[in-house]
Amino acid sequence: MTSPLDLTRSPDTDPLAIYRYRDGLYAVDLLTAAITEFDFFTWLGAHPSDHAAICREFALTARPVDVMLTLFTANGFIQRGDDGVFTVTPLSREHLVSTSPYFLGPYYASLKERPVVKDFVTILRTDKPANWGSYKTEKTWTEAMLTDEFATTFTAAMDCRGFTLGPALARKIPAAGRTRLLDIAGGSGIYACAIVAQHPHLTATVFDRPPVDGIARRMIAKRGYANRVSVVAGDMFADPLPADHDIHLFSNVIHDWDVAKVRPLLAASFAALPAGGLLVIHDAHLNATKTGPLPVAAYSALLMSVTEGKCYSVAEMETLLTEAGFRSFTFAETAADRSLLTALKP
Fold first, then answer.
1. pLDDT tens track for 200-217
2. Structural domains in the chain, sorted by start
3. Out of 63, 65, 191, 234, which could bridge 251 as a Cys pair, Cβ 3.0 to 4.6 Å?
4. Of 234, 236, 277, the residue nearest 253 (C-alpha)
5. b/e map of 237-271 (b: 16 or more CB within 10 Å)?
6. What is the dihedral of CA 143, 149, 150, 156, to 10 degrees?
7. What's 306-326 look like in SS3?
8. 95 in helix, strand or coil?
9. 144 within 8 A of 150, measured Cβ to Cβ
10. What is the pTM of this model?
């Protein structure tokens, strides 16, 4: 029998800078698209406007514009008034408005043909995500995840970060008095394994679609947790959630989906949890006013490009959780710009 890995231990060094290089990779391409394709800051400098008016003026769509505005706010390029109207800051008026002698638009012009810049122009106009990274097929990320090759590669990518994020998450979960955790769309099962390692009284179930369920079984067994973490195959959008779990976990899941798909996920969790059940959302969260943190706003640009989602603010999530029936929210930071929100089913 395989001895369990020690998943209660965090790394000795802090990989935050390494995470941020990767997570913020697309932010410069979104800024470049705004400057070189739309001359956005010049227009906004002359026409302070709210989100809806910006969408109308440039014929753009709501989700990617929200991500763009949040990124620029977090950078200090624009600011949002209490009335929801965005204006340029002195920084962008001097360096991003084309009538200024200090305008840096030409400095970005050579980046206009970068593939991700072109992708962002299309996404802003259509709200249709691009292909994942350098994946060469015409499949979207969700369709590609149904193939063994892509699912294996993607799941391994998400698994490796879990050895840092998982122990930090597990230490913050209020698991006392609870017995069974359901890791919804749990991928490799790394978070479920880390949580049961930290809380020996818990067992867990990973719920995910084929072929990821098979990948999860192999990886859980390899870690030595097959006797405490089981796997159930299913589609969280189409199938009932497994019953008899008093903790539900969405770890790095909500950010893949727009509000129209987040709502039924939260509703399904609320319906399946018992009274007093705990919902845990582990993700990269923006602050309530969506002015930062900047690394999360930058990560949201990557997510907006390749998924149907974005990073949500704490206030946005609490609104959605309240609509679903949850109450008693808590928030805690974990590691590498991630955090958790908890909510209770009354």
1. 999 999 999 999 999 999
2. 16-140 (1.10.10.10), 142-289+308-344 (3.40.50.150)
3. 191
4. 236
5. eeeebbeebbbbbbbbbbbbbeeeebeebbebbbe
6. 140
7. HCCCCCCEHHHHHHHHHHHCC
8. helix
9. yes
10. 0.93
